[in-house]
Amino acid sequence: MAEDHKHIDAVTGTATTGHDWDGIQELNTPLPRWWLWMFYLCIVWAIGYWVVYPAWPLITNSTQGLTAWHARDAVVTDLEQLHAQRGPMMQQISTVPTAEIAANPQLLDFARAVGRTAFADNCAPCHGAGGGGGKGYPNLNDDDWLWGGTLADVEQTIRYGARAGDDKGRSGNMPAFGRDGTLKPNEISAAADFVRTLSGLPPDAGADLALGKKVFADNCAVCHGEAGKGNRELGAPNLTDKIWLYGPDKQTIVQGIQNGRGGVMPNWGARLPEPTIKALAVYVHTLGGGEK
């Protein structure tokens, strides 16, 4: 084996390591000098880092280093500086009505910036990053509003929520007409076909639209209106447009009539500070579908 180490490859002139695989010999090529020096410098840098900064975990703490610098302390400092910088504007937002914020270009820009961040942190998981919504979660970019789309309406919905247990919140549930025995399966099917026709969708072949119209008038019109235009006081959607919160297919509509609907939106007023609530209302109102 020692003689193998002394063997010099005839083609490259480099000594071999003595490793041989089916006649293929491994060259003992030295590492480049620049790579070795970088490796040694990294070792020196690591040792210096351990000395200067907190690095090694102990039983109840860690080595603090010469600087005792911590990322957590840096974050706290940055947040304190941000709060100090935003303080006057946040105080102004908290003391003036939301309508005045929307009418003041400087406050409007600031509120939208704050609202955008608050929306991403709290609202985007349900309504989507851009407010586009999803099945069961309203699209905030269109002009279709369950509870009203004025700035005051949006603020009230955000502040007190919907079906969240707040006395000032939005309330109103769609009954489970099938589960509680109010309607029979054939009546639910006929009502679903009739509801689809309200927005121009075709019913099933052989659908009993006369029965569906009667079922709707007797059970659904009290909330959705005789023409199906909806009722914002109850959160009953307009059934004549092309916008469907849960989907326009018949099976989805049947499930809604059978089991009812009643999604919950948190009362953010109990969770977020006053200026953030107002900033959120302004931001959502300006997404594209807000009403005057």
Output the keywords.
about 290 residues; mainly alpha; Cytochrome Bc1 Complex, Chain D, domain 2; two-stranded antiparallel ribbon; elongated
What is the chain-wise order of helices and strands? HEEHHHHHHHHHH
The CATH topology of the domain at 73-168 and 265-285 is given as: Cytochrome Bc1 Complex, Chain D, domain 2
Q: What is the CATH architecture term of the domain at 73-168 and 265-285?
A: Orthogonal Bundle
Q: What CATH first level of the domain at 73-168 and 265-285 would be assigned?
A: Mainly Alpha
Query: Could you give the distance between the termini?
Result: 90 Å
The helix content is 40-55%
CATH superfamily of the domain at 73-168 and 265-285, by name, is Cytochrome c-like domain
Shape: elongated
Number of strands: 2
Mean pLDDT: 92
Helix-strand layout with pairing:
Elements (H helix, E strand, L loop, with lengths): L1 H4 L10 E6 L2 E4 L5 H20 L18 H25 L2 H6 L1 H18 L1 H4 L23 H10 L24 H14 L10 H16 L25 H10 L14 H12 L7
Antiparallel strand pairs: 1-2
Describe this structure in words.
A hairpin with a 2-residue loop joins strand 1 (16-21) and strand 2 (24-27). The model has no long low-confidence stretch (mean pLDDT 92). This protein is mainly alpha-helical and 292 residues long. The protein has helices spanning 2-5, 33-52, 71-95, 98-103, 105-122, 124-127, 151-160, 185-198, 209-224, 250-259, 274-285; strands at residues 16-21, 24-27. 24% of the residues are buried. The chain is elongated, with a radius of gyration of 33 Å. Helix content is 48%, strand content 3%. Among the domains are: 73-168 and 265-285, Cytochrome c-like domain (Cytochrome Bc1 Complex, Chain D, domain 2, Orthogonal Bundle); 185-259, Cytochrome c-like domain (Cytochrome Bc1 Complex, Chain D, domain 2, Orthogonal Bundle). Helix 7 crosses helix 11. It has a two-stranded antiparallel ribbon. It is built from 11 helices and 2 strands, in the order αββαααααααααα.
